[in-house]
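Minutes, project check-in
Item: structure for the 85-residue chain
Input as provided by the requester:
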Amino acid sequence: MSGIHPFPARGRHRGRHATRTDICEDVRVGDPLTPQQEDRIRQLVREECYFRDREALIKLTAMTLLLKLAGTVMLGLLLLAFRFL
């Protein structure tokens, strides 16, 4: 691979582990992966899935909170409107 990856390295990963490029450049087409390379690939996939799931959960929680807040405001406005009618 020429350094192009479907999942670019995130800032929080840099410096902690070997980069994806370090792992991929050692592998030639047709060469079997070493156990260390397989473990590292599994770890990268796990980390990527964890951060995707975490970010999706944060977005979902934020949207739920905003919807609850909007619903509360709307109910409050309706209550005020009916009280003064």
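Outcome recorded: The chain has two helices and no strands.
No further action items on this chain.
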